[in-house]
Amino acid sequence: MTTRKATIKDVAREAKVSVASVSRALNGQGGVTAETLERIRVAAKRLHYIPDNAARSLITRRTHTIGALLPDLFGEFFSELIRGIDLAARSRGLHLLVSSSHDGADEAAAALRAMQGRVDGMLILSPWVDEGFLEANLPGALPTVLINSPIHASGRSVLNIDNRGGAYAMTEHLLRTARHKDIAFIAGPAGNFDAEQRALGYREAMKKLAPKVPLNIVAGSFTEESGYHAGRELLAQDKRPSAVFAANDMMAVGCLYAFKEAGLKVPADIALAGFDDIPIARYLTPPLSTVSVHIAELGRNALERLAALMDGREQSDSTDTLGCAIAVRGTCGASRDASTTKNTYQPARPFDP
Predict the structure, then answer these.
(1) 244, exposed or middle or buried, with CB in 10 Å at 0-12, 13-18, 19+?
(2) What is the pTM of this model?
């Protein structure tokens, strides 16, 4: 025999209140006393009442779900970013729907179309997104926050990391505090906004602080494997650099393995630094010097900005930049007690969470 599913009317009858009171109480809208709220919760639990979210969405026009489109779901950077977003979403009673676009613009477009009507807002971090893409695939009225995006004046809110300033600061630290002469740079993938900004920061610092030293840039793709191959390529050069700055920590990890495989000691024989400060960075041997961007905080800030847009507490079409700080550890050859190089590059709108 099938047991009938309890309805909101059953809860109201059990708690001896109106259906409207049950609805307000279970939706967190207030308007009932603490005693009534407790009686409603006890009744709902006793009856095993499960709210009909689909019906509620039809009434409120809210799904209480936000979407996140990322370029990939693999690696510590994205797991930390999702963790920050999810924790902030849970604290607001929001659910998280995540998809990736690592196979290109068509996959990103399909993911956005699949989420339409299922989310109240979108967080987007994708190298495939430009203004034309957004106009073609995303309703203009849907609250959206773009993360690490070059897009401006699109009617969307943008939250960036100070990639350029962070890379400048690390290069400056390696030159001035750690006293390295020639610094090689492992670049990220072509066409990636983060990678381009980090390369620009490296170039600017080298041009200003070591103008007579030739730039030494090798290609990478933000993966450990590309960092490993870049490390081998650098070791095969006629003159080995004294320090290597990888555009992200995953490449630095691969590069570190290449150096150790070749019998080199880090930092005695060659120094190394990364970017992002993923959780494993401090547990490497030696611990990795890196540019710390507070990844989980980036996710939290993006979610809170999106929630403000959804609630009408903030206007779209704004851009903010989260500041970076260099984390001096064992791989760069400078003492932890050494005075940290000040970031002399200032973003247009600095913001330090």
Answers:
(1) buried
(2) 0.77
